[in-house]
């Protein structure tokens, strides 16, 4: 039960994080700042990786 709840939340998280990455990218592309474009990819990906590690640990601990 806990594992499926985590997986369902994970799907929602993937959707929202993807939307945020796209929005950040579009917003920063409009300013044409190379540093901003770099951060567009780096910050969401680092946050995404850390959160996905938490979800993986939660899933592993349930099984």
UniProtKB/TrEMBL annotation:
<keyword id="KW-0472">Membrane</keyword>
<keyword id="KW-0812">Transmembrane</keyword>
<protein>
    <submittedName>
        <fullName>Uncharacterized protein</fullName>
    </submittedName>
</protein>
<feature type="transmembrane region" description="Helical">
    <location>
        <begin position="13"/>
        <end position="30"/>
    </location>
</feature>
<keyword id="KW-1133">Transmembrane helix</keyword>
């Amino acid at each position: 039960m806990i594992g499926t709840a985590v997986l369902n939340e994970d799907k929602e998280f993937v959707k929202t994080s993807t939307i945020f990455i796209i929005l950040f990218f579009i917003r920063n592309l409009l300013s044409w700042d190379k540093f901003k474009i770099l951060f567009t990819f780096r910050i969401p990906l680092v946050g995404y990786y850390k959160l996905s590690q938490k979800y993986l640990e939660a899933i592993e601990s349930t099984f």
